[in-house]
Amino acid sequence: MNLHLSATAPGKALVPHYIPAGNECELFELAWKRKLPLLLKGPTGCGKTRFVSHMAARLGLPLSTVSCHDDLAAADLTGRYLLKGGDTVWVDGPLTRAVRNGGVCYLDEVVEARKDVAVVLHPLTDDRRILPLERTGETLEAPAEFMLVVSYNPGYQNILKALKPSTKQRFVAIEFDFLPKEQEIAIVSAESGLEERHVAPLVNLAQRLRTMKGHDLEEGVSTRLLVYCASLIESGLTPREAISAAMIEPLTDDPDVRLALREVAGAIIP
Ligand SMILES: Nc1ncnc2c1ncn2[C@@H]1O[C@H](COP(=O)(O)OP(=O)(O)O)[C@@H](O)[C@H]1O
Ligand SMILES: [Mg+2]
User: Fold this and answer.
1) In this model, does residue 173 exceed pLDDT 60?
2) pTM here?
3) SS (H, E, C) 2-29
4) Coiled-coil segments, which residues (predicted)?
5) CATH number of 5-175
6) Ligand 1, residues 50, 192, 194: which to mutate, most atoms within 8 A of Cβ?
7) How far apart are CA 158 and CA 9, in angstroms?
8) Does 45 contact ligand 1 (Cβ within 6 A)?
9) Is the CB of 79 under 6 A from ligand 1?
10) Residues 223-268 pLDDT 10s
11) What confidence tens digit (pLDDT) does each residue in 34-64 have?
């Protein structure tokens, strides 16, 4: 199975550092208390995954994360019969395990998954909160401790990959975006160990490059790339080399666009 899973033990894990942009922590907690599923929208690398791991740890909930991809089918989430030493045994998938045991199940980039995944999510995301397992004949009722969180990036503008309204309207949604300058500087500095005064020009450059999104660039510089860039500088690379490696090369393969980005970078950070 081509899944990228990670599990955190309840209560034990340190709470991952997260700087809130608004009331999202409060919203998450209320959604959790009222058993409402949550949808996080926003560009790549702006803190969605970090937010979920922060909140799960804060609430002492086990977290199971699935990175969805275009080959991910419902059975990868629910489970399947597998051959084990001559016998066929049912093996729960990550979603089924979370429904049985409680905890947060986070489906990252849910629109990437195959269409049959929506069929599984629908009965779990209305007031029935059930997971029917056709293959075993069971119908599981989600316990109060179960919460479904999904994320997607509406910016890709791929009509085939948009989330259907019938699915979208089953979730409480939070929109994520890159944080305001001062907060982003604080995050990048905290994550990379580079002093804020050295981080500030990088954030200025990122903000400038983000305005080029849609014209020359498909995606703007993410907070994640800023953290990479600052980490490289903190480790001794020159700003020019770090910017090229972490803020220009990952954004484009087009030589002309690359040249344009270099010029913008050179004007801001000589
Ligand atoms: N609000 C925030 N607080 C702390 N770190 C953040 C925040 N937003 C982004 N980051 C940093 O950016 C990185 C990428 O964020 P991530 O949650 O993986 O993005 P996404 O899931 O939206 O693609 C994180 O590993 C973290 O270093
Ligand atoms: Mg993510």
Assistant:
1) yes
2) 0.89
3) CCCEEEECCCCCCCCCCCCCCCHHHHHH
4) none
5) 3.40.50.300
6) 50
7) 36
8) yes
9) no
10) 999 999 999 999 999 999 999 999 999 999 999 999 999 999 999 8
11) 999 999 999 989 999 999 999 999 999 999 9
